Amino acid sequence: xxxxxxxxxxxxxxxxxxxxxxxxxxxxxxxxxxxxxxxxxxxxxxxxxxxxxxxxxxxxxxxxxxxxxxxxxxxxxxxxxxxxxxxxxxxxxxxxxxxxxxxxxxxxxxxxxxxxxxxxxxxxxxxxxxxxxxxxxxxxxxxxxxxxxxxxxxxxxxxxxxxxxxxxxxxxxxxxxxxxxxxxxxxxxxxxxxxxxxxxxxxxxxxxxxxxxxxxxxxxxxxxxxxxxxxxxxxxxxxxxxxxxxxxxxxxxxxxxxxxxxxxxxxxxxxxxxxxxxxxxxxxxxxxxxxxxxxxxxxxxxxxxxxxxxxxxxxxxxxxxxxxxxxxxxxxxxxxxxxxxxxxxxxxxxxxxxxxxxxxxxxxxxxxxxxxxxxxxxxxxxxxxxxxxxxxxxxxxxxxxxxxxxxxxxxxxxxxxxxxxxxxxxxxxxxxxxxxxxxxxxxxxxxxxxxxxxxxxxxxxxxxxxxxxxxxxxxxxxxxxxxxxxxxx
Length: 489
Fold this sequence. Notes:
Blueprint: H1 2-22, H2 32-37, H3 39-49, H4 51-69, H5 81-128, H6 134-149, E1 153-160, E2 163-171, H7 176-182, E3 198-205, E4 208-216, H8 222-289, H9 295-327, E5 335-337, H10 339-350, E6 355-358, E7 366-368, H11 370-387, E8 394-401, E9 404-410, H12 439-450, E10 455-459, E11 465-472, H13 480-488
Parallel strand pairs: 6-8
Antiparallel strand pairs: 1-2, 1-4, 3-4, 5-7, 8-9, 9-11, 10-11
Helix pairs in contact: 1-3, 1-4, 3-4, 3-5, 4-5, 5-6, 5-8, 6-8, 8-9, 9-12, 10-11, 11-12
């Protein structure tokens, strides 16, 4: 109503202004000229207020045209048939122009509306085709629907047992009555076009209902209903796809868990079988032969039992470390310590006879969790000793490289092919590069990276593999350097 009134006022104001300007000049104007000029305010009134504003402007323009520009002036009387024709033509032309302008406005408004609907459908489609979680998808859906239909609120309901529960809402909070209407009692018939301005649309995908879309909006015309159903169809397909994707991810997770379980059982059974067989054979020999064994043979069998027991202990420790890594419970207890202490601790874990060390005496201390880094070096040494010939020693060396100390474990085994150097650090991955795989290298990589450092494998001088990892240099406490300088001076 305000728009019609505004259009009528603009038209009347324009007619008055045109009349005031033309009255002093009417003796010099033809009868048709004022009619043409008075078209302008009529068109302005139609553009602003629509057809009814234009109709009021036509009436006002007719009165002004007849009163001021059709002889005899100052009266509504018409002096001749020619003037009657001019008045009738003016009215007909003005009405036609008003109708034409209104039609163009409606066509433009409809085109704008369809363009906006197309844009909204495109935006919704772009949102729905993305790889999004179901909760995020539903939030975007209700927000888009609420904006598109100027609704007070919009909601999506999903099946929850034998009822429907609200999964996502946008806009104003729902009243208790509206909430009750959204989730009716089982078996109670409900109209989709519910009263109270609440509209519902079933979300159907592949002929199966997957949810319900509801909103509190102004009355919808057929075009709005068609658009709403388009939204609902796209939303249903997107929800179905999201649910299928989540189900696929769950299945893939279960398959991955099964694969890890099988790989763990395979790795553990493989690593357990050899030391257990050796221990059993040694114990059986000791029990069967008893005092008949030579002292040297007896000591060799006992040493074998001790070595294989240590191997089993390392396997159990690796399994516990893997559990800590997988659960995210790895807690670093860093403190400065000498590199030699790390190497000595690793050698004590293995007690090997075929390890040589090459450590400069001026190596700076490193800031690490000493227990974890000893385990890293022990795992690398264990791997190197298993793949190095019996008559060749494994060499442990260290050197300062920038802000870190690089520790290298070098063996003379078959080495690792360049294409497999990243794979050897993967859990349970059996590669052809000398069979280097299992828990030890993967745990070593996890412990090193937990310190923010790196580990790699490269060719050793003269053949074999050279595993290198870094440890950060420990910075001296604040004030130590200044104190030393003062003491020196």
